[in-house]
């Protein structure tokens, strides 16, 4: 019999150090419990007898532009998303990155440590594309030309809001943003003159006084410390460079990506949520799109499915990779 205590687990009466818990825990031991939340493309459950874990089940939904009317279903997408996420997190974990991911449980689900999610979306960019060009139109290139490449990757922070507001621990941190004017998920700009304070700007306009949303917040209001934000930026940069190397070995270009972080019950900062083909822009050596961007650009669902299946199969090759950074 395998049982767990707060700091150790017992295997047939023998006390086992926490480092070995994960090796002893198999997917067959875990079962989903009560539903916690329903997201755009996944559903989250508790895990029976393991209050420190959560069960994440991907669905076949694909979304675009935060517009529910554009949501579609692609048969097999849940499988493809789970395959990519689990292969990515397994690679990062092997490379020493702290992740919430624990184990894949079936074709469309995995188990992760339960976290208090930090309401920040981190975007790391190697190339200037998408909304970045709306904020920096001077970097727009001629049609058909490769996008502008940043020698050093650019790391940006966006505040995650819902219907124009953010509530943390029953406190309204931000309110009154207008989703109809594109103010949802604003860009966060740090003011070094005010310790721990970020000012919010329209995410798709150049950063000027005119694009200011006339709102600011302290990191304390997000339930984190400034050092957490600094660590988040550095970890995000490192994760991007590692995945960039992995994709380079498969003759693909990682254009940009978005990731999220959480803090576990024991206070560990971890890369959380998912990292799948909805999380990045990925292109082949001929600059053909291999990510969710093909759906945003209006491709048929069969073409989108083919692209997602290809990326899922390619991600399986991560398992054998040995990657390091200087």
Write the layout of secondary structure elements.
Blueprint: E1 2-4, E2 9-11, E3 14-16, H1 21-24, E4 32-38, E5 42-47, E6 53-58, E7 61-62, E8 72-73, H2 77-94, E9 101-106, E10 109-113, E11 115-117, E12 120-127, H3 131-135, E13 149-159, E14 166-168, E15 171-174, E16 187-190, E17 197-201, E18 212-218, H4 226-248, E19 252-264, E20 269-272, E21 280-284, H5 293-296, H6 301-315
Helix pairs in contact: 2-6
Walkthrough of the structure:
- The chain has six helices and 21 strands.
- Helix content is 21%, strand content 34%.
- The chain is α+β, with helices and mostly antiparallel strands.
- The termini are far apart.
- The protein folds into two domains: 2-115, Phosphorylase Kinase, domain 1; 117-296, D-amino Acid Aminotransferase, Chain A, domain 1, CATH 3.30.470.20.
Short description:
The chain has 326 residues and is an alpha+beta fold. 21% of the residues lie in helices and 34% in strands. The strands form five sheets. Strands 11, 12, 13, 16, 17, 18, 19, 20 and 21 form a nine-stranded antiparallel β-sheet that branches. The chain has a five-stranded antiparallel β-sheet with strand order 4-5-6-10-9, with helices on one face.
Q: What is the CATH third-level topology name of the largest domain?
A: D-amino Acid Aminotransferase, Chain A, domain 1
Compute the separation of the termini in Å. Answer: 45 Å
Which class of secondary structure composition applies to the elements? alpha+beta
How many separate helices? 6
* Largest β sheet strand count, sense and barrel closure: 9 strands, antiparallel
CATH class of the largest domain: Alpha Beta
Backbone shape: globular
Radius of gyration: 20 Å
Strand tally is 21
Number of domains: 2
Mean pLDDT: 91
Sketch the topology as an H/E string, one letter per element.
Answer: EEEHEEEEEHEEEEHEEEEEEHEEEHH
What percent of the residues sit in helical stretches (DSSP H or I)? 10-25%
Annotated CATH architecture of the largest domain: 2-Layer Sandwich
Strand content: 25-35%
